[in-house]
């Protein structure tokens, strides 16, 4: 009888996304961990128009999705695997698409009564002067302007003066045709990893640069991960429950990460969900898993064992 150890596993990485290099580092760590566990895992660089034939030619049995951004995190890879009948890790098409698009996910959080920062959304078909005027009318400064379809803080700008709004809009619209303007939450930053019905220990993120941008996320030693976070049991439970609510609302599977900010009064607000969280040496999810007593190779194995098709 075949076991998972007999299966050919492709860890899909790279591609044309702005987060391709992070994906390659994530995938290399995952493939190494699975190989350590005795699995036949190989890295497969994404070439979008060749992927289907590559999966067939290599007789791939399972896809371990290590792609960040476009194609891997937005439902495209998930749809391909569903059509080909190849089990894959992580959530399905709908959960991926909603989780990746900040306009859709923020509206979903708001509609479900999940605390999230006040926001407005705009499209590149609108006049930029009108967008800037609406942002000034709706928000006090600073305000956060984000591309709707990017991760790793790419296309995200904190605007401190009205003069900066137009350049922030140009930056955010580089990466997607919709953007979100969001009230700046002036507190501490946290994240909670969730797998099924288990919320991992809360992590507090403290950056030596004072901001958790692309550099802080991926340069070793720049950001500290305090895990478990030095907060009260009550706030810990509240954040874990928020993360579970978001995970279930979005129909997620596998492991996801929910990012949260507190305001000056200590009230938590959900920023976003990452349905294919980073798994590099400096990533948050492996840190949270270790704090929960799960070593990295075991974490990768657990994610692999949940690979399936027929997801929402």
From TrEMBL:
SMART domains: GARS_A. Its cofactor is Mg(2+); Mn(2+). Binds 2 magnesium or manganese ions per subunit. One of its GO terms (biological process) is regulation of cell shape. The keyword Cell membrane does not apply. The active site is at residues 19, 152, 283. PROSITE patterns: ATP_GRASP, DALA_DALA_LIGASE_1. Residues 106-305 form the ATP-grasp domain. Mg(2+) 2 binds at residues 272, 274. It catalyses: 2 D-alanine + ATP = D-alanyl-D-alanine + ADP + phosphate + H(+). It is found in: Cytoplasm. NCBIfam families: D_ala_D_alaTIGR, PRK01372.1. This is D-alanine--D-alanine ligase. The gene is ddl.
